[in-house]
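Before going further, learn to read the protein records used in this course. The integers have meaning only within a learned vocabulary of local backbone shapes. To see the layout at work, look at the sequence and tokens printed below.
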Amino acid sequence: MTKNTNGQVIVIGGGVVGLTTAWWLLEAGFGVTLVERGADVATGASYANGGQLSYRYVSPLADEGVPLKAIKWLFQETGPLRFKPEPDLRQWRWLASFLANCRADLNRKTTAKLLELGELSRRSMEQLELAVPHDAFQWRESGKLVVHRSKASFDSATAKADGSAQVWSAADCAANEPALGAVANQLAGGIYNSGEAVADCRVFCEVLADRLREHPKFRGFVHDEAIGFIIDNGNVTALETLAGKLSADAFVLAAGIQSRTLAASAGIKLPLYPLKGYSLTAPIRASDVAPEISVTDFERKVLYARIGDKLRVAAMVDMVGEDLSLNPARIGSLTRQVKETMPTAADYSRIEAWAGLRPATPNSAPIIGATRYGKLWLNVGHGPLGFTFACGTASLLADLMQGKAPPFGLDGLTLRA
């Protein structure tokens, strides 16, 4: 398959990662079929996520001090974390690896690599604008403001801020973003980065899917449930689906948390765990004071983004397995926090709640590239930054599958044997 851009590829996954992967492979000269188990694209984690494109704010979850914070969060009614022990070794392996990554030196190393990936992703999204105009999916360069409630947290963030960031006092935060006026006296300050954006990920996926259908090398969508890979003579020869076998010259796994099970059918253990997150979407009225800047409440781990005429709020990490149910207590807690923080930002009587499973690695870095099978490739593990990194990892994978050298070293971004 290497260096052959006339081969046929099956991409598994119709979310933002799978769709961008399909596009970059088509542009590289491959024929592509995309397999998606839903009746439409973007029905999983891409459906109603936070909508932030955070190219410069890529802080990995694993860091020094996080384990102690996590214990405190578990006992807070409004805490961002919930944990339900499972009789599943995959949960405990992931937790052990996560704890091993909770070191300042490893966090700095991963952050540096994710910043490289973020910059590539930003440039790749700009490149894609020729096919998918920004205004087609409510893209807006809003900038990103991370507000801190405690002085210690703010001081730490200030010390880490690079030259491109602006350090704002609490008064600056409220002056530059009036939606924060109700909590200005509760803030220590904030770190603002220009150039960050917000957009509607689901609409982006739908528009990109239309561009795929128009591409001369696209072989079409197969809406079917993938069951696993068929191995013959030491290589992947087909994808088993409910409707039968699908053959190709190569296969790309980009199916969110389902990738974990599909990879296991080929004897590959992916270090992924579904971090369940919630979002709220509410319409913005003419009289509302909605945020123009994308805002992240650092201590509460809640983000706010204005997407078109709606307010999108995303938050929480529930480690409860592959449970997609809407927990009324969690939705109620998040709704109360939102009303306290931005009481006049939207029509909260018309809130729509959603939950999705973010396929996360222990160190928050996605996994891109080859496996021990020459025909099986990976683009998985983006966690909460799937929208942010999708274009970058798609372009990287297309380069790798053509035998091209990547633009930077991929240490920490590939599958460990």
